[in-house]
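Re: 16C structure - here you go.
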Amino acid sequence: SVHTRDQVELPPPAIDNRLTVHSLWQEIDRISTEQIQAAFEGVGGEIGWQLFAEEGDMRMYRREMEVDGMVTDPLKAMHKVRGVSAREMCHYFFNPRYRYEWETTLETMTIVEEISSDAMVFHQTFKRIWPASQRDALFWSHVRAADGHTYAVTNHSTVNSDYPANTGACIRLFVTVCLACRSEYPRGQTPSRDNVTTSIAYCSTVNPGGWAPAGVLRAVYKREYPKFLKRFTGYVQEQCRGKPLAM
Ligand code: 16C
């Protein structure tokens, strides 16, 4: 299987052929393209986006939105991280081998399908937020290279008859997430750990899928999104320390 080899498998520089013949390919390609494009569109000063967290180079914005009385506030975060590449960032975000090490909301993670070296389907259950019911999610995840030292991971909810929604203790939530990263280094120099900077745009929309108190939900994400982005970027820097830079 593609994920049991010892060697570090970085995201491929081109789409894996096995993905392009899969039944989900059209949807994966369309949503990933849209998400990556939207991720790099500005937020600062744009109407509707409210800044809710700021720390160093990290800025987090949200738009208040409700669908059928449920909070579905879209989130957009920007960050700058030194000493790691876009490809490395996306490798650690995409590869399930590392997920429990940085993802603190997770209770369980199951690999539902290994589509290709750059696409998988996951089932995850999350820690329960009192007083709401526990949530789970079923989503495909795709990592790809884009123009000019840019890599991105897109996660989007899907369905699978082996993992029916709302049959056990969990309510199924719906998620669209994009982590888009772009590396830069001084013109004329060779990229290295000492001169590379990666700009991150992280976009997330979560529909809780069933009743959850609005106030609790907003309080939880205001705390959890900054915690996630700081922890994840710190984790990647730590993992990459002393290893050759992979652009
Ligand atoms: O993008 C992230 N992680 C990826 C890999 O796991 C993937 C995951 C997406 C799922 C995001 C939904 C998380 C819902 C968690 C609910 C339980 C949180 C409990 C925490 C309290 C200890 O793309 C990083 C995701 C960072 C998530 C931050 C938390 C966002 C909360 C949003 C509101 C959820 C509504 C739940 C209704 C009760």
